[in-house]
Specification:
mainly alpha, elongated
Length: 129
């Protein structure tokens, strides 16, 4: 357990989350059509893609900025991450089931990534109380 009642492992997960979010957000913001067609999207709406990139920048950036905060801030951030990942999972699953973009395999990988992070965030939220 590190300072302010927040486990060191959770602080490290926030940094990992920042890195993953930014690795996706940067190319999604700069070259959404290139990135998404590379992963099998049939058509790309750059406006929506860049909006998703902005969300990744915001949540990932907040993860980095708040990595040294106290337990109260971590609880609030975990609540945000849980809600965001559940919403993303629901939207992705609906889109895949409706055959959006031809349901590229990468869409399933992104869904799995959001599900994995959701499980991680719920675990830590329960652990923090």
């Amino acid at each position: 357990m590190s300072g302010n009642g927040v486990p060191t492992a959770l602080r490290k997960w926030f940094v990992v989350h920042f890195v993953i979010d930014f690795l996706f957000a940067i190319p999604l913001m700069v070259a959404p059509t290139w990135l998404l067609t590379l992963f099998g999207w049939q058509t790309v709406d750059p406006f929506t893609a860049r909006l998703a990139a902005a969300a990744l920048f915001g949540i990932g950036g907040a993860s980095l900025l708040e990595r040294n905060a106290g337990a109260g801030t971590f609880r609030a951030m975990l609540n945000l991450k849980i809600i965001w990942s559940l919403g993303a999972m629901a939207g992705l699953l609906l889109s895949i089931l409706q055959g959006a973009q031809g349901s590229p395999p990468f869409a399933w990988a992104v869904l799995a990534l959001f599900a994995g992070f959701n499980v991680l965030w719920v675990y830590w939220r329960i652990k923090l109380g």
